[in-house]
Amino acid sequence: MGNSNIYSKIIYTRSPQTELRAWIKKYEPGKVFLATEKKVDEIWMPQFDDFFQSEGIKKVVIPAGENNKKLESVEKIWKFLSQNGADRKSLLINIGGGMLTDLAGFAASTFKRGLDFLNVPTTLLSQVDASVGGKTGINFNGLKNEVGTFKEPVAVIINTDFLKTIDRENFISGYAEMIKHGLIKSPEHLDELKIFDFKNIDYNQLQEIIRHSVEVKKYFVANDFQEGGIRKALNFGHTAGHAFESLAMEQNRPVLHGYAVAYGMITELFLSEIKCGFPLNEQNGLIEWLLNIYGKLEIEKFDFERLFELMTHDKKNESGRINFTLLPKIGEIAINQNCEKELIFDALNFYKNLKPA
Ligand SMILES: NC(=O)c1ccc[n+]([C@@H]2O[C@H](COP(=O)([O-])OP(=O)(O)OC[C@H]3O[C@@H](n4cnc5c(N)ncnc54)[C@H](O)[C@@H]3O)[C@@H](O)[C@H]2O)c1
Ligand SMILES: O=C(O)C(=O)C[C@@H](O)[C@H](O)[C@H](O)COP(=O)(O)O
Ligand SMILES: [Zn+2]
């Protein structure tokens, strides 16, 4: 497993065009390209179109939404790059949420075996998590991120102004990954999240909190780029969370990724108490808080087999065993926690019986 101590340059700015101009200058004229998605294109690109046109940058636009994080969309980007003469020394600028940065990062990292890409994340979730750390990928066969690569963007340009146009659901979806960062590494970060007023957002304060979250992500990425060990911390809540997300998708009642992670964290806090002695009083308080923000995905007993089956595809599994990342306490992780089917069913039953807030 390759470890890496290098990571992309992360730039916080309220003037993304200035930063972009400096990056574009590093590449040959005509060899810089732009990928975005429909909604971001409509809301934000009118402010960028003149700039990109003046730099001679061509754009490909993908339909918005998680169901477009798929092979056909990758092909669309590959074709665009191919038809416009992209080569190994080219740069692809990705502007969008996590769907787009995962997808276009994957397209860039595989086209001609990999060209540079730069992420400009436009959702909270992509600013604190998806655009950073080099996991790229697409969903395949009903499974989350089933095909992907590890390749870091050359830079990530974070501008909190983009967050002024995202809706409340997408804001709190991103918030779940921040809560995860607090739980796995930083009680201080968790405390600031508990008191942050996200009904009345102070964008300067938000930028600082985003920075704290990104620091947690960077720590694990820098120490274990290809997830051989401690990077699995960043997957807390995701073994169950991805199963909930896939189940909801196949039952035509999709949930946002961060919501699924919140449901997954509730389930895995239960397992954390049983397997690692996570304090019960704190577990109760956290679950109540999460239920209050995220509500519940209602599940039935007959869903348990399917959820378990989905978990058997988790990327942390080894030798047919389902491995969770669990917490002995806030800020401490225990990776590779193998749980048997019976215990997983107990956890699902615990989740099922919770009363929505
Ligand atoms: N690579 C990683 O490490 C990593 C980490 C976490 C999540 N992810 C992935 O990220 C994806 C979720 O990302 P997401 O939550 O950003 O979803 P998303 O990209 O689908 O964006 C959410 C919604 O917000 C819209 N949107 C984007 N920017 C906007 C803006 N500035 N204003 C208004 N609307 C805007 C989009 O069109 C979409 O409707 C999932 O596929 C998840 O698996 C990847
Ligand atoms: O960066 C990581 O490592 C993560 O696990 C971050 C997660 O929030 C993210 O959802 C990631 O895409 C999940 O990866 P996967 O390997 O479980 O598909
Ligand atoms: Zn996630």
UniProtKB/TrEMBL annotation:
Name its co-factor(s). Co(2+); Zn(2+); NAD(+)
List, in alphabetical order, the Gene Ontology terms for molecular function in this entry: 3-dehydroquinate synthase activity; metal ion binding; nucleotide binding
Q: Where is the 3-dehydroquinate synthase N-terminal domain positioned along the sequence?
A: 60-172
Pathway listed for it is:
Metabolic intermediate biosynthesis; chorismate biosynthesis; chorismate from D-erythrose 4-phosphate and phosphoenolpyruvate: step 2/7
Coiled-coil annotation reads none
Give the Enzyme Commission number.
4.2.3.4
Q: Which Pfam families match?
A: DHQ_synthase, DHQS_C
Q: Localized where?
A: Cytoplasm
**Chief localisation class:** cytoplasm
Q: Which NCBIfam families match?
A: aroB
Q: What does this protein do?
A: Catalyzes the conversion of 3-deoxy-D-arabino-heptulosonate 7-phosphate (DAHP) to dehydroquinate (DHQ).
Q: What is this protein called?
A: 3-dehydroquinate synthase
